[in-house]
Structures are given as structure tokens and as C-alpha cells.
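Narrative of activities, Objective 1.

The group set out to show that a structural description can be obtained from nothing but a protein's sequence at a throughput compatible with the screening campaign. Below is one input-output pair from the validation batch, recorded exactly as produced.
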Amino acid sequence: MRGAKALAVAVRNPQGEIVTHTEPLNSRIYGGRLMKIPFLRGLTLLWDALGLGIKSLMFSAEVAIQEETTGKEEEPAAVFAGPMQWGTVVFSLSFAILLFFVLPAFTAGQLDRWLGLQDASITSNLIEGLIRLTLLVGYVWLIGFIPDIRRVFGYHGAEHKTINAFEAGAELTPASVAGFPIEHPRCGTAFLLTVVVISILLFTLLPAMSIPVRILSRIMLLPVVAGIAYELIRFSAAHQDNSIVRLISKPNLALQRLTTREPDEGMLAVAITAFQAVRAYEQQAGLDTIDTTIITKSPELLEGHSP
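Output recorded for this entry:
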């Protein structure tokens, strides 16, 4: 869970206890001038999806490794800090750019040659956009069959339900949170789909290019596309009371069905714990709080829940 000033990650250790890590966010990214500049602030969502997402997964791995190697309940060491973390971020970003931007541009360029569309830039760019959209939806759909990913998607659903329950003013208990929707308009999945749709609209306006120039233009315009997508997501999330905005948001919410699963009560307990950790930090905003890792043994959250 990410708040305005802190990040909290909650995972279960092999004993079934919830281990929670809380740390302040980088003020240069989230509290600096960048967050005040429209369109440029959309770049923070790329960091959310890659930097913070990978860091959270690494913390989960650290908890498991600590338990396996020592058999003790100790604060997880920074096993994947430094070069390992940044190397993973660079690899993940490079993979995403290659799969969803470079490959569609290259494929469309080859189709131009085979179909004689070199001068039909609008048609060619639309074909490229459809390839990109197919790759995104197909990729998300396929990885959903991997058991471990399906479990991650369950935690994703628990996160959404927890936020929806909080915004509705409901009690934050697994039983209460379970009844709330699994979709949320500010989801990162919605951001990804919006990026693809905006890229289709923007790239369609570009003239015909050679394949190398075409690929380079897609990479160079990615920050622009991300910025526009962020502002659109921000606007739609703030105007869900408008019927037209809700209609526009439906494809984003539909795609979330691929990246979320109905969580069990144990998953909901983990999501609630992470959210409460963020709230506790936010309520002390302005204090110099150091990184903390705690093990939760709250019976009302853990009793009867499997790891």
C-alpha cells in the first residue's frame, strides 16, 4: 500500500504471521516539484509499477529466505538491496518496452513491407496499436494461469477491496471488506490500458517512418504517453459520479478482472494490515520516522487464516 508519504508491505511468513515493513517514500519523487507538474507527474506511476512493486516482491522473498536460512523471526536483511534491486528494475523496464513498444513497432513495420502500406501511415499505426493492445491483454491473460501469479492477483483483489471499504467508511475487518468490489478506478492496470489506448491515438497521427526511426519514436514518446494517461486516470477517478466518465472507465475496470481474483480472508487480513500501517505513518506526517519492520500477531486478523 502506498500513501502520500509512506509505503507499507505486508506478507505472511512460513509460520502464518503477518510481517509488515513500512518506510518513507523518496521525497524527491513524491514530494518534490515533479508531483506538481501536470503530465510529468505521470512518470511516478511508472516507478510505482516497477520500483515499488519489485521492492515489495523482494521484501517478500527476503522474509522467506530469512526463515529458511536461520529459522528465526528476525528483521529481514536487505538481501536484494543495491545493484540487485536496480538491476531487476532496469531488466523489467527494458522487457516491458521491448515487448509492448519495440515488438509492435517492428512487426507493423514488417507488415508494411509485405502489404505495401509504407505510405498508409494511419492504417499502419492502427495495426501497430492493435498488436500492442493484443499483446498486453494476451500477456496478462496468460500469466493468470500460473498458480503463483493467480495468488498474487488474489492479493491485488484484497488491496482493491480494502481501499474501497475505507473510502466507503466501512469497518476494516476481513468480513466487512470482503463484500466490496474487486475493481478500483485508480488501479495500475487501468493505467497500463490507458497508456496503450493513448499510444494508439497519439502514434496514429505520426507520419510514415523507417523501422529504426519508428521504434526510436515510440521509446522517446513513452514519457509523454504515460503523462497523458496519468492525467486521464486522475480525472476519471475524481469524477466517478459522472455517467460519461464511468462509461469511459468501463474498459479499465473490465481489464482489472484479469489482474485480480477474489481473495480469501487471509489475503484480506494482509491487505488490511498494510493499509493500517500506511495510515499510522500518515497520521504522524512530518515526523522523522525510520524504516520499521514488525511482525503482527493480531488474533482478530490471523485466527483461522492459513498462510
